[in-house]
Write a structure and sequence with these properties.
12 helices; single chain; alpha/beta; two-stranded antiparallel sheet; 11 strands; globular
């Protein structure tokens, strides 16, 4: 307005995040068919203009990472939708008609459970389009199967899907986005990360991260063979926390298995609960360990400021300087919550209806998170590492 005071428009949420955090990371856990939840989370981030500059994934999280990193921001959600619409079709026969998002108000839970179990059985017997198909002949009918092909399914269709939906030149542009995916060396049992800052990534790096035995075969990379990273650690959080140098970071950690759950009442419940515990076991431990480490690094940094300038050339000071850090971490933790109809087969139940349900859950959870911009504010010096959990009211830890 003429004659009025100049006013600077308040920054948008995306602008505030970009101005505050040099690193905005998206950390994606493994969990098979549940990974559509991560796609919904990313859609909400994209709608808000919050784009990660580092994405780390394991198993299905690595496949989602390939689609996100392998496309320009304006195409990522569309390509994720195409990816999930592809792999949620049977590899052999037409798909079942999708229930209306398995809405419990329209369908009794036992009916939903029956459809879900049937879809999981079809995945086991028919495979999933653009993902995996049953190996023929099956391994028990092969007289001398090669060690690297000993598996129930072949994953050649996944390579074609990744190469069709992801631009690997873009994936390997580490200046635009850093990409890290985890796998396990079959021969040594050692965990390994493939990172585009250390060498080019190809389809096999992402396939290796999701090569869960005995279903999927090991993937050869550089003369070694790799299986699913979730066999050792199902979350790549440690990679991001230890590899970000001394930069402040906003980390969106999207988990697909909940460490907490009800006591099982039958064998199906035992199988489901054991999976939840197995694949979520390291998340809380790594988070707590890194929180304590960062608090110690900050304390060391503050103590070093008290050392007289004349003593700062001392070798002990130099060693402490290398170990200290004033970096701050804000960890936004989202965890997929089970639906009433799901069973122990939820990670290989690829029906269109369940995929839509998972996707919408992730979308809603991230919309809720971003509606509380105070959760994205940087931590203070007294608490350099804070976490916010959408399912616990966003409380800091």
């Amino acid at each position: 307005m003429a004659g009025g005071k100049n006013r600077t428009a308040a920054p948008t949420l995306a602008e505030a995040v970009g101005q505050t955090y040099p690193i905005v990371a998206l950390v994606l856990q493994g969990g098979g068919a549940l990974g559509a939840y991560q796609a919904g989370v990313y859609q909400a981030m994209a709608e808000a203009g919050v784009h990660p500059n580092w994405i780390a994934g394991i198993s299905i999280g690595a496949l989602n990472a390939a689609i996100i990193a392998g496309n320009p921001p304006e195409k990522r959600v569309e390509r994720l939708q195409e990816f999930w619409s592809t792999i949620c079709q049977s590899a052999l026969l037409p798909a079942l008609p999708a229930l209306p998002a398995f809405d419990s108000s329209d369908w009794p839970v036992p009916v939903q459970n029956g459809f879900s179990a049937w879809a999981a059985w079809r995945a086991l017997t028919e495979g999933q389009a653009g993902f995996f198909v049953p190996r023929m002949p099956p391994p028990f009918l092969q007289s001398h199967p090669a060690p690297v092909t000993a598996s129930w399914y072949e994953t050649a269709p996944l390579r074609a899907t990744l190469e069709r939906l992801a631009d690997f030149d873009r994936i390997n542009d580490a200046r635009a986005m850093r990409v890290s995916v985890g796998a396990v060396n079959v021969r040594t049992g050692n965990f390994a990360y493939f990172d585009n800052t250390q060498g080019p990534l190809r389809a096999e790096h992402f396939m290796a991260s999701g090569a869960l035995p005995p279903g999927f075969p090991a993937v050869e990379i550089g003369g070694e063979y790799y299986w699913d990273g979730g066999m050792v650690s199902n979350t790549p959080l440690y990679k991001v926390l230890t590899g970000r140098s001394s930069s402040d970071a906003l980390i969106f950690q999207v988990d697909l298995w909940s460490a907490q759950g009800p006591l099982p009442r039958d064998m199906g419940g035992v199988a489901e609960r054991s999976k939840d515990i197995q694949y979520s076991s390291r998340t809380r431990m790594i988070t707590e360990y890194m929180r304590l480490m960062q608090e110690q690094q900050r304390l060391l940094h503050d103590l070093m400021a008290l050392v007289p300038a004349a003593r700062r050339g001392d070798p002990a000071y130099r060693r402490a300087e290398a170990a200290a850090s004033c970096a701050r971490t804000n960890l936004i933790h989202l965890i997929y919550r089970d639906k009433p109809y799901e069973g122990h087969y939820k990670d290989f139940e690829f029906s269109i209806g369940s995929m839509q349900e998972h996707w919408h859950s992730g979308l809603a959870d991230m919309h809720h998170t971003l509606s509380h911009p105070q959760w994205l504010e940087p931590p203070g010096p007294a608490r350099p590492f804070v976490t916010h959990d959408v399912h616990r009211g966003g409380e800091g830890v």
